[in-house]
Amino acid sequence: MTNPRFDVLAIGNAIVDVMAPADDALLANEGLTKGGMMLIDAERATSLYEAMGPAQEISGGSAANTLAGLAAMGCKCAFIGQVADDQLGEVFAHDVRALGIDYATPVRAGETPTARCLILVTPDGQRTMNTFLGASQFLPASALDPKMIADAAVLYLEGYLWDPEEPRAAMRAAIDAARSAGRKVAFTLSDAFVIDRHRADFLDLLDKGQIDILFSNEAEICSLAQVDDFEAAVATISAKLPTLVVTRSEHGAIAVQDGQRFAVPAEPIDKVVDTTGAGDLFAAGFLAGQAQGRDAETSLKMGAIAAAEIISHFGARSSADLKALIAQKLG
């Protein structure tokens, strides 16, 4: 097997995040569940945007956020995701490439605009996401470059993108390309609503040995295993794949790798400002550690450090030098 050109190649939603502070009253008026993620249509995206206060726009999407963290830690990355031939599509492509991430997915012509996620952040740091998938849900298998996928040590797949039919088929094709090349496949479950809709698919992928690394939070792993007991869920799912990583918010995180369990506490911070991207950056830290040949416990610590940095400020992209921060924290 040849040495890969990329440490991680990710496939995910190409989204521009529109973030604004909000109070609980606005969430109630708009009928939103705090901390949740809801898919919305173009009309709802317009009305909710009008109700939001002054906003900050930045290229986002779960997998793209993870790659941004990986790139900041010195990893070589590539991204596959669909944007439209419009202004937000240009913004997304520019932002991703400016981070040093290889991005060459052809733009999609037509009326469907580039995706955007309207994120309301309450004073307690909780983010409530409302996502208009737009062009991102039309990523075709023809947009994949099998040689590029084969040239990445890890293929990282965003669970959110499993929901629409066309990108789901593309991701299945990408898994086949990665497995054929002897590369690892990582998958993030993303949200309980995704699991509810596609639990059978996800379990089938695990049972067939198609996933090497699975990222989840506590609620998601229980949902996937369909049990209320966390330890029972971990035992059930970890038996199906080489590496399971589960974040537990203020209780830290665990990994079960090749049957051995590791745990780290959450990194202390002065104040939780915004939890947007916490799981994405945790995955970035863990994958960076694995790419550097570090053990699972150290990789978990790297994930915890990256997640703590991201929740200490507004937005899902790091404001500190993550590479230097991790070096300092690890000693």
Description:
The protein has a nine-stranded mixed beta sheet, with helices on both faces. Strands 3-8-7-2-4 form a five-stranded mixed beta sheet. By secondary structure, it is α/β, with parallel strands linked by helices. The chain has twelve helices and 14 strands. The chain has one domain: Ribokinase (UDP-N-acetylmuramoyl-L-alanine:D-glutamate ligase), CATH 3.40.1190.
SSE order and pairing:
Blueprint: E1 6-11, E2 15-21, H1 24-29, E3 37-39, H2 42-51, E4 56-60, H3 62-72, E5 77-80, H4 87-98, E6 102-103, E7 115-121, E8 127-132, H5 146-150, E9 152-158, H6 165-180, E10 184-188, H7 192-207, E11 213-217, H8 218-225, H9 230-238, E12 243-247, E13 253-257, E14 260-264, H10 278-291, H11 296-311, H12 322-330
Parallel strand pairs: 1-5, 1-9, 2-7, 3-8, 5-6, 9-10, 10-11, 11-12
Antiparallel strand pairs: 2-4, 7-8, 12-13, 13-14
Give a count of the beta strands, DSSP E runs of length 2 or more. Answer: 14
Nearest-integer average pLDDT:
93
The gross shape turns out to be globular
Number of domains: 1
Tell me the radius of gyration. 18 Å
Q: SS-based structural class?
A: alpha/beta
Looking at the overall shape, the CATH architecture is 3-Layer(aba) Sandwich
Provide a count of the helices: 12
Going by CATH, what is the homologous superfamily? Answer: Ribokinase
Question: What is the element string, with H for helices and E for strands?
Answer: EEHEHEHEHEEEHEHEHEHHEEEHHH
- The fraction of residues in strands falls at 15-25%
What's the helical proportion of residues? 25-40%
How are the strands of the largest sheet arranged? 6-5-1-9-10-11-12-13-14
Q: What is the CATH class designation?
A: Alpha Beta
- CA-to-CA gap between the ends? 34 Å
CATH fold description? UDP-N-acetylmuramoyl-L-alanine:D-glutamate ligase
The main β sheet shows up as:
9 strands, mixed
In the predicted model, the low-confidence regions spanning at least 5 consecutive residues are none
